[in-house]
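Re: the pair you flagged

First of the two:
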Amino acid sequence: MAKKKRKKDLEKKEEKIRSKKDSGKVKEKTKEIKGDKEIQKYFGVLIVGLVIGLIAGVALLSSLSIEKQSTLTADEAGQKAVDWISNFFEAKGQNVSIKLVNATDTKEGVYQIGVEISGKQGEVEQSYYVTKDGELLFPQGIPIGEVSKRPKQGEQQQQNQGQEQNLEIPKTDKPDVKLFIMAYCPYGLQAEKAYLPVYKLLKDNADITVNFVRYAMHEKKELDENLRQYCIQLEQTEKFYDYASCFTGGDGNYTKCLLEAKVDKVKLNSCMARIDEEYNVTGMYNDKSTWIRGKFPMFNVEADLNKKYGVKGSPTLVINEAVIVSNQQYCPSGDIKCVVASVSRSPEAYKEAICSAFNNPPKECDQKLSADATSPGFGGGVGSSSSGGCAS
């Protein structure tokens, strides 16, 4: 049963935490656009202007004030680039603020930098590349070695059709299924709402769980809710479906949902306090130096699983050790199994994907569920898209 398996996993993790601190890092965010269409349009004009300027003549940064060195640190080169971009916008009469968010080395021999551009309409983050001597700035990196390997348009269409028609998910007698989410991510909520009817239908036939991404993008309340759902699954499994259905399908009022699902609050609070202490959840929230890029607090309760499956954001579906993605470009790097399949965020699509992972599908797989994609965010209703996610 999922409950026993989860307890066993917890025991292993408790043993690990006594001997070694986890050192995994979540891949840094390279691009995030905030706001509505007007904000996106406003910054789109600014950024297009900058990109045109860069393409027209790759930016020469040598005139800026940093002392000449054959190789600069990532931060030095990044700041030099930021100064140049600031001067560019100032010359164009644009009243914007430019800030270096991150600067990292790459295997291609250049630095990748994240830049935050703030103006009257809000803010946007962009990714650029700068040479290690700080002399040249590029709007983006294009892996030309990969271009020659890409199939022609007709071949790509055939491949995409084949991927959509064939779910090559590994089969087992009792599939292991994990859905990684952030409790307040709109798209995580969308996926969880579609997943829960399948959880209820197949929980006696498969090891099926809701799991949590290693970082949180939606304030302290997300860390708390991740812990809450984790503990209900762990110690009060029979209450989880009712609680999670109430939480995701309503307005996120967890107090009301705990009452409706008849969750033992004393037992829940004890579990949450224990897990919080063991994985330093609150401590990492309070210590801003442990946040990703100073913005997102870590949630290390299932860090080992995140690392094992290369989880990058919410939602991420894993079936029988294979990460299910809609496009090959989203496959995790390394030796992690990956299956490219078109799985919409509807109960029926999730059911079909999971049922395809049985050697001998149970009779429950014959039951039809809703084929409508659920809506992003809290509440009921039908969604118009099965794309989108929360990722750094």
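Second of the two:
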Amino acid sequence: MIVTPQHQNAQHQNAQHQNAQHQAPQRTTVGELRKSGHVERPVKQEIRENLLDKLRAGADPTPGILGFEDTVLPQLERALIAGHDVVLLGERGQGKTRLLRTLPLLLDEWTPVIEGSELGEHPYSPITPESMRRAKELGDELPVAWRHRSERYLEKLATPDTSVGDLVGDVDPIKVAEGRSLGDPETIHFGLIPRAHRGILAINELPDLAERIQVALLNVMEERDIQIRGYTLRLPLDVLLVASANPEDYTNRGRIITPLKDRFGAEVRTHYPMDLADEIAVIDQEAVLTAQVPAPLIEILARFTRLLRESNAVDQGSGVSARFAVAGAETVAAAATRRAAILGEEHAVARPIDLDTVLSVLRGKVEFEPGEEGREFAVLEHLLRRATAETARARLSGLDLGPLVSALDLGGQVVTGEEVAAADVLESLPDAESVAAVIERLGARTEGERAAAVELALEGLFLARRIAKEAGDDGQTVYG
């Protein structure tokens, strides 16, 4: 597989992150912990202070998040500093989950817990009956373990079959069978929220939770206790609750009930990338490419995605996910890889001819307005051509393409296609000098890059109605 520079950078950053993980502290009892001067901090205070330290140092608190620097991130940072539970509202594919998964980086790298405790309680503050009994019996000899911040982030996809027991807990029949009474707090099997004690719980697609299940969250968020099977177990839970949701107006699947919305301290709206450069950067960061995809093709896909978001034919309430452009880049790369395998090319390089593969493969990722039934493919094809024309104009602006047009006017033809090798495309050029300026402008060096540059110029001329283009039954496309 060909690894792009972006993926090399991502792998390097991941390796750095793993290497930077320090060993857990060696203190093993609560007595040693007290002697070391360790201070317990509630999770929201911990996040606030670590966030402020990063901001003072000029460090990026949310690495890998693009396009939110001046909009979403300042709002989220203010909410975390205020100690609020947060819900992110936005259409699909706006990076809500990706953003939530950066929050554990604001936790301390290691935190002490009571060894063996079910809820990861702090050694200074046991909250379950068993941990309180052990703390009283063992005193300063209470054993301490260390938990990494990656273990303090729990994530739950809200599905219609989610139960109160999944989130809060339920009576464990096995513990009852062992002889404990039904009202004994130690008969409880804890759910996700108590298990997120001293950490972060993220609930994706919160409106998908049934309303009766959302009601179960009310006490947890405000009073910080849980109610199970008719009795209340008061636990001073220390949890940051964050959630993602589609805007209420845009979803028919459900809604966030009003009392629950009121308990979230902050509601932050996300958005798609506002600038073309951010759209391109998201593709570069997220796409896993099996072949080289030249920058102009990435730009075409980014422009194509943005045009879909502006089109009246597309259901904008559903949105057009950033994953559309990412999947498009991966599809284009796959087409180039397939061609290289069939034709025996040493290096697989995508070309504009490969963009046509995106239309049929990714059509299901776009929701169209009801009146556009039967015209979906035509809409996609039209917008892809617009994106290609805009990119060709932007990339080749100021170049004199007259010599290439003249060469074709004299009877020359350039043949390309999904299964036409880059060398054959270049060989069919009537005059190599006519495209020298294009190749230089686009920085094309290899054979595949030069063929991609030539195809972009030819497609730009065709869309500007300066040359003709004909698709043959054999899968080949002829410019002339």
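Confidence is low (pLDDT under 50) at residues 1-19.

-B.
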